[in-house]
Amino acid sequence: MAIAKAERLMNLALCLLGTRRPLSKRELRESIEAYLEAGVDDAFNRMFERDKDDLRELGLIIETVENIDGEVGYLARRDSNRLPPITLDAEEAAALGLAARVWQQARLAGAASGALQKLRAAGMPEAEDAFDTHQSALEPRIPVHEAAFEPLMLACRDRRPVIFDYRKVTAARPEQRQVEPWTLECWRGHWYLAGWDRERGAERVFRLSRITGRVRSRAGAFTVPVPDVVTVRETVESWAGETATRTARIRLRTGSGYPLRARAQSVRELGGGWDELEIPYGHGLDAWLVEFGPDVVVVEPADLRAEVMDRLRAVAKG
Asked: How far apart are alpha carbons 201 and 87 in whole angstroms?
């Protein structure tokens, strides 16, 4: 269905751009096969009006002209729909080139590379040597290995609800979730989806690596307004453990857990191969502590200790 509509919109745009005089609805219907197959006039009229609005929303300037006989015609003048010359300096060109290289591990790599080639063909300057000197030594990447990334990215863009199976760390089996996706955020090398969980009636964040199976789109509009970008990003950071509201006391085996030591507010040697650390405690700390296995023991608070124990039991059960 999406391919058929895209083809229909392309054919309509070509007809409107390729004519020197306004074309009536009748002429456009006779020129585009999809309109001939639309059936009755009412169905064609609705389809044509939607397509015309879609093209205008995409940026095509369509003029409506009435001739001396009162018949309405449509055309898109080339001079009104021509982009201005591309003027980018070397620094701007370097920034675009860097952005294209960042996505090399994702399926966006082809689109980014193709866009860069088109810009260069249109006159975009090559990056200065100063921006290329250190590429071999340091080159940023955004890792995207999860199959759920692309369908969720498109669902966020198109504001489409989705359904997927999600496996929590503390659960033995995945559960189906119905989500209105808001945005994707990368934190500490992992991708997270922030959105509205319809069944729980609350805002939730999901780690993409825990999504199992295929992400399925659902028809219908969002039921909850999408927050602004800053609010969503803060939510992702909070659910991923970035925002600390309390402190926790843990015991850490000597010579291990250097990421935890880097965040520690205080470190005290206990002897016997153990140290005691006071670290910031925010949502998601339990999942992070589990990654250190037997090298970490939670002393307090009690609720954090219980959460870590639950996660360890779930891992032990497989």
From this structure: 48
